[in-house]
Design a protein that fits this description.
This protein is mainly beta. About 5% of the residues lie in helices and about 45% in strands. Strands 2-3-10-11-19-20-22 form a seven-stranded antiparallel beta sheet, with no helix packed on it. It has a four-stranded antiparallel beta sheet with strand order 5-6-7-9, with no helix packed on it. A four-stranded mixed beta sheet has the order 8-14-15-16, with no helix packed on it. The protein is elongated. The protein starts with 13 loop residues before the first strand and ends with a strand.
C-alpha cells in the first residue's frame, strides 16, 4: 500500500537452470597443393527452466498482449507462450457450438475458452550451423547454413489481417464447411453440455455434423480473428533452415604486391540472408516485436522484415 511509504520494490526475480551442451567440430576432408575443403559444424541445445520465482509471484510477464503473452513461470521453460484457445473436451477434441439460439456465424463453430494456458515455448530444441569453405589457388568460396529446430511464434500480424479481411486465407468466405470436433456448448453455469432430443445433457455430444458458412461476421464479431478470438490459432512453428552467408573471394598473388605497401590484398563478394525455408507463414521468424535486447521473444505484430544484403569489398593487409 502507498501508505507504507513505498509503491514498488526491486527483488530477486527467482532462479533459472540451463542444461544442454555445445559442440563444435572443424575438419579438413581434402587438402592438396592447390585445393582444400574445410568444414565446420556447431550444435547447441540449451534448455532453460524457471526453477522458482520470488515469494508471492505466480509469473513474470516478459512481453505480449492481453491474451498472447511471453512469461516466466515456475516449472515451465523460460519464455513460455501463454494464450487462450478454442474449447476442448477431456479427450482433446474441439467443442463445436450446437446451440441453435446462437447467431449463424457462431452456431456450428468452435467455442472460445478464455482460460490462459501454456501452449509451448519460444526457444528451439536446438540450433546448428554448417560452414563449408573451398579454396583453389587464390580463390575461395564459403557458405554458412543456419538450422533452428523447434520453437513457436505468435503471428499477430495474421490475426489482425483476418479481422480486416485482407489475408489471402480468406478467399473462401461464403463457402460451407463442417468443423471437426464434437457437439456441445457452455450452459449458464459454465458447464460443458450438449443438446440431445432438444434437452441439455452433461458433457460433449457426438461428432459434429453442423454445416457452417464462412462469413465476415466470424472474423469481426465472432472468434475467427486475433482481435475478437483466441490467439492460439495464430501460434506457429518458427523453425527454419537459412543460407546465412555466402562469400566468394580472390587473394591477389604475392608477386603483385612486392613493390607496394601491402602485405595482402583480397577482393570479395558477400551475400547475407539469401535463402530461407520455414513453415512460419509470416515474415522472417527471426524478427522480434520488442527488439533484439528484450527478454521477450516470439512476438510478430507487423514487425519489420529481415534484410537481404550484398557486399563488395577490398581487404588490404599491411
Amino acid at each position: 500500500a502507498p501508505s507504507s511509504g513505498f509503491t514498488s520494490a526491486f527483488l530477486n526475480a527467482g532462479a533459472m537452470e540451463t542444461t544442454g551442451f555445445d559442440v563444435m567440430l572443424n575438419v579438413t576432408p581434402v587438402q592438396t597443393q592447390n585445393f582444400s575443403w574445410d568444414f565446420s559444424v556447431n550444435f547447441s541445445n540449451p534448455e532453460t527452466v524457471v526453477k522458482e520465482l520470488a515469494p508471492g509471484v505466480d509469473n513474470i510477464g516478459l512481453g505480449g498482449f492481453v491474451s498472447a503473452q511471453i512469461r516466466a513461470v515456475e516449472g515451465d521453460p523460460y519464455r513460455s507462450i501463454y494464450t487462450t484457445e478454442f474449447l476442448k473436451d477431456e479427450q482433446g477434441r474441439m467443442v463445436i457450438n450446437d446451440d441453435p439460439s446462437q447467431p449463424d456465424y457462431l452456431h456450428g463453430a468452435p467455442i472460445w475458452d478464455q482460460e490462459m494456458k501454456s501452449v509451448g515455448k519460444v526457444p528451439p530444441r536446438y540450433t546448428a550451423g554448417l560452414t563449408n569453405t573451398f579454396s583453389f589457388k587464390g580463390f575461395s568460396l564459403s557458405g554458412t547454413i543456419d538450422i533452428k529446430q523447434g520453437g513457436l511464434m505468435w503471428n499477430g500480424t495474421k490475426g489482425a489481417m483476418y479481422f480486416f479481411g485482407v489475408h489471402g486465407d480468406q478467399t473462401n468466405r461464403g463457402e460451407t464447411k463442417v468443423w471437426e470436433g464434437v457437439k456441445g456448448h457452455l450452459n449458464d453455469q459454465g458447464e460443458l453440455v450438449h443438446f440431445e432430443d432438444e434437452e441439455e445433457v452433461a458433457g460433449p455430444g457426438e461428432s459434429n455434423n453442423i454445416e457452417w458458412t464462412d462469413n465476415q461476421l466470424w472474423y469481426t464479431d465472432g472468434y475467427g480473428s486475433g482481435f475478437t478470438g483466441p490467439p492460439n490459432p495464430f501460434i506457429e512453428s518458427s523453425e527454419w533452415i537459412r543460407l546465412r552467408e555466402i562469400t566468394l573471394a580472390y587473394t591477389l598473388p604475392q608477386n603483385l604486391l612486392t613493390n607496394s605497401f601491402f602485405r595482402k590484398a583480397e577482393v570479395y563478394f558477400t551475400g547475407n540472408n539469401l535463402w530461407l525455408e520455414t513453415p512460419y507463414t509470416g515474415i522472417d521468424p527471426e524478427t522480434n516485436l520488442n527488439g533484439a535486447d528484450s527478454n521477450s521473444r516470439g512476438l510478430d505484430y507487423f514487425n519489420m522484415p529481415g534484410t537481404k544484403s550484398y557486399t563488395f569489398g577490398l581487404r588490404l593487409g599491411f
